[in-house]
Amino acid sequence: MVWHVWGEQQARDPVPLVLLHGGSGSWTHWVRNIDALAAAGRSVWAVDLPGFGDSAAPAQAGGAEAMTEPLARALQQLFGASACDLVGFSFGGLVAAQLLATHGALARQLVLVGAPAMGVVPARQFTLRGWRHLPAAQQPAAHRHNLAELMLADAGLIDADDGLALRLHVANVQRDRLPRRRQAGADALARTLADVRCPVGAIYGRHDALYRQWIAALRDAFARAAPDFRGLALIEDAGHWVQFERPQAFHQALLAALQRGAAP
Hints:
Residues 17-252 form the AB hydrolase-1 domain. GO terms for molecular function: hydrolase activity. Keywords: Hydrolase. It comes from Melaminivora suipulveris. InterPro entries: AB_hydrolase_1, AB_hydrolase_fold, Epox_hydrolase-like. It contains nine helices and seven strands, in the order ββαβαβαβαααβαβαα. By secondary structure, it is of the alpha/beta class. It has one domain: Alpha/Beta hydrolase fold, catalytic domain (Rossmann fold). The protein has a seven-stranded mixed sheet, sandwiched between helices. Strand 2, helix 1 (34-39) and strand 3 (44-47) form a beta-alpha-beta unit. The longest helix has 16 residues, at 247-262. The two termini are 33 Å apart. The relative contact order is 0.16.
């Protein structure tokens, strides 16, 4: 399992900040956030989850549950008995919740970013295009569609910064060795949160394609599901990949969530 670390020597907060990326992703889902978090005095640990990025595939087949034990062992090896602050984006949020449902001592708090499966959406809200079967010349169009359909509310960002979003997305999906992983049920996260005892916060883009018009139902869903829910922040003019699309607003929301979660 490959980890990327920033700010360890200069950190003013002794609690490591661990970032889990989304499905078909890698640590680069956080590329626009790392410097600001390190500058805020945190040691930042961003992992490539098993089967994604540069990490080896998990020994056990499956979805988020296949990540739990490898990730638990990794955190215990890295930090011993010390707890971290855990932030999970999308699929990584489901992984984080399942991890803490069975290994609660590993984290001081959990912040979920654009996480799925809260049980408030009646049906899937987006349609993605397959690309692996296409000739190379036709694959970029499929990747563009998928970014605009699921990840970004502002499709103009696909070509911004010399096409950074598209380049990261293509590199990540090409390295996904678990394309047929088992999908979570519609309320899998909500059910799992019942067993997460640490403080839980949440951050979403207001136009997240996972939820669309049902985004307003999330606050009550979290309050019902998480025993120690500390609040939901909705970032305006942002979609699912909220930390990439609106990095400054996300940074402020994350620091505020972490402060709330660290309070007694």
